[in-house]
Write a structure and sequence with these properties.
Blueprint (H helix, E strand, L loop, with lengths): L5 H8 L4 E5 L6 E4 H17 L8 E5 L4 H13 L2 E4 L6 H11 L3 E4 L4 H11 L8 E4 L9 E2 H6 L16 E7 L7 E6 H14 L6 E4 L6 H6 L1 H7 L2 E4 L5 H11 L3 E4 L1 H8 L14 E4 L6 H11 L3 E7 L2 E8 L10 E5 L4 E5 L12 E6 L11 H5 L8 E9 L5 E6 L4 E3 L2 E3 L1 H8 L5 E11 L3 E10 L7 H9 L10 E4 L13 H8 L4
Parallel strand pairs: 1-11, 3-4, 3-5, 4-8, 5-6, 6-7, 10-11, 10-12, 12-13, 13-14, 24-25
Antiparallel strand pairs: 1-2, 8-9, 14-15, 15-16, 16-20, 17-18, 18-19, 19-20, 21-22, 23-24
Length: 517
């Protein structure tokens, strides 16, 4: 195979180098590239000889992060099959619908989702598509299930290859929009992976980096931001079951991590961890932040207290995911920017008629490049609308760029609201709120108003021990923003709803507050 057998190649080039540390296990498990390739071959042999998996078939997994996700992905890549990681935040009824659409023959799961799996099995067993094999990672599993590790070790380790795999073949489905409607399955090809890896290596990685992954493996951030480029380049990746700020700080120090990536809420939470003060982060070459603008006070705190350099960026499931990068030296000078397009990415800002806009004009961000996905699985209508007639992908993000070609996300189209005829961008308000010394986390949404149509509602979590009133925060914003942008209400919360990827779930905030307004 000239493409697709990632571990097979890496096991030739650096068989004894440490590839994966599964720190979510007790004790942590450590795997060289030779052992990872052996595990992938064993599972691929089982999938092919017992489960009957062939090129193009789907293999699903519903589990917290661990080495089993990678066993599944790399076994599928050897067979030309399609790794299908399921979002464990979804209700079992939603998962049942996904199973009906993607028709996997095998489902791997961790024991904390056993009840979900039992309900899912009961729901799909008498439908057109029934899953034939259930493999549990830990615990006792559901009746009739197989133990993943036992199945793996009972299978032969001889090399597996699918020689007709090509660059355009699909290796994974990554689901989008799971918090705002039924998720679409973006099709990730080997071509997409190769170009994203090249863009990532140009900006970020070396052969000797140690990366700690905290993104869920059903998310593009978990599999493709750094994890797979690390494997291709021959670095080491550390996995944990899910984000835990104290554990992250401890592992960075213990494992001498050189690269870490998170979203702003994760970095905020780390500063409140009980071991923040004594944590040694000196091994880090840089941290990457994405998903939302990183507040300047937070950047300054990390620099001042830990000497950490930040790269910032922007990515999305359907494209890249590495699309933009902002160098550490620009973190303060270009605060709020996502940086410039990565090497093999073209980016433009267009108006509603698809006409090109100039510097400092707000419009929709559109992209072009070889790291775009191959449409949506089983959804030809959505696939047809993926790119326009000129080959540009429309992101749905409102953005601008400055005279130096640094781009700024102004807001999501769906998050923007109109108050008294004026466009209001919550990201701008949140940026101002984060300048207040008492604000730990915040999110702004638009709520109905009989006079203005919509007005802002600020949801705020204060730092431990800090105090602030609604009147104080509103006055603080009035000194920094136009009056129509200032929220009419501030509500204080113990915590904000956070996705598995660490992003604030504004949809849930809408559900909490819009009916009350």
């Amino acid at each position: 195979m000239y493409i697709g057998d990632y571990l097979g190649r890496r096991a030739i080039y650096s068989p004894d180098k440490l590839a994966i540390v599964d720190a979510g296990k007790e004790p942590p498990r450590r795997f060289t590239y030779r052992r990872m390739n052996e595990r992938a071959n064993r599972f691929a042999n089982w999938l092919r000889s017992v489960a009957g998996i062939r090129k193009g078939d789907r293999v699903a997994i519903l589990a917290r992060d661990g080495v089993e996700h990678l066993d599944c992905f790399f076994a599928c890549s050897k067979l030309g099959a399609v790794h299908t990681a399921l979002n464990w935040r979804l209700h079992w009824r939603e998962l049942a619908e996904i199973v009906q659409r993607t028709t996997p023959a095998v489902l791997i799961y961790s024991d904390d989702f056993r009840e979900t799996i039992a309900a899912l099995e009961a729901a799909v067993q008498n439908t057109q598509h029934a899953i034939r094999f259930y493999l549990h990672i830990d615990g006792d599993g559901i009746p009739g299930g197989l133990h993943f590790e036992t199945t793996l070790q009972g299978s032969p380790a001889n090399p597996v290859a699918c020689e007709d795999v090509e660059a355009e073949d699909i290796v994974a489905l990554i689901f989008t929009g799971g918090t705002t409607g039924f998720p679409k399955a973006a099709q990730v090809s080997h071509r997409m992976i190769a170009w994203n890896t090249l863009n990532t290596v140009i900006h970020d990685l070396t052969h000797n980096d140690i990366y700690l992954n905290v993104f869920p493996m059903f998310h593009t951030g978990g599999l493709f931001v750094y994890t797979l480029p690390q494997v291709i380049l021959g670095g080491t990746t550390i996995l944990i079951r899910q984000f835990d700020p104290a554990l992250v700080l401890r592992l960075i120090e213990q494992e001498r991590v050189t690269v870490f990536a998170g979203v702003p809420t994760m970095y905020q939470m780390m500063t409140q961890a009980p071991n923040w003060a004594e944590a040694d982060l000196s091994s880090l070459r840089f941290c990457t932040s994405g998903g939302a603008p990183l507040p300047v006070p937070l950047v300054e705190q990390y620099v001042r207290e830990k000497g950490v350099r930040f790269k910032q960026g922007f990515g999305m499931t359907e494209f890249g995911p590495g699309i933009f990068a902002l160098a550490p030296e620009d973190a303060v000078r270009k605060a709020g920017s996502i940086g410039r397009p990565n090497f093999y990415i073209d980016a433009r800002i267009v108006d509603e008629d698809n006409r090109l806009l100039g510097p400092n004009q707000v419009g929709e961000l559109v992209l072009k490049g070889p790291s775009i996905c191959s449409g949506y699985f089983g959804d030809p209508e959505a696939t047809a609308g993926l790119i326009d007639e000129e080959g540009w992908f429309h992101t749905g993000d409102l953005a601008r760029y400055d005279e130096e070609w640094y781009f700024y996300i102004v807001d999501r189209k769906k998050d923007m609201f109109i108050s008294g005829g004026e466009n209001v961008y919550p990201v701008e308000i949140e940026k101002a709120l984060y300048e207040h010394p008492a604000v730990h986390m915040c999110a702004v949404i638009g709520v109905p108003d009989p006079k203005w149509g919509e007005v802002g509602l600020a949801c705020v979590v204060l730092k431990p021990g800090a105090t602030a009133t609604e009147e104080e925060l509103i006055a603080f914003l009035q000194e920094r923003l136009a009056r129509y942008k200032v929220p009419k209400r501030v509500v204080f919360m113990d915590h904000l709803p956070i996705s598995a990827a660490g992003k604030i779930l504004k949809r849930e905030l809408h559900q909490m507050f819009v009916q009350q307004s």
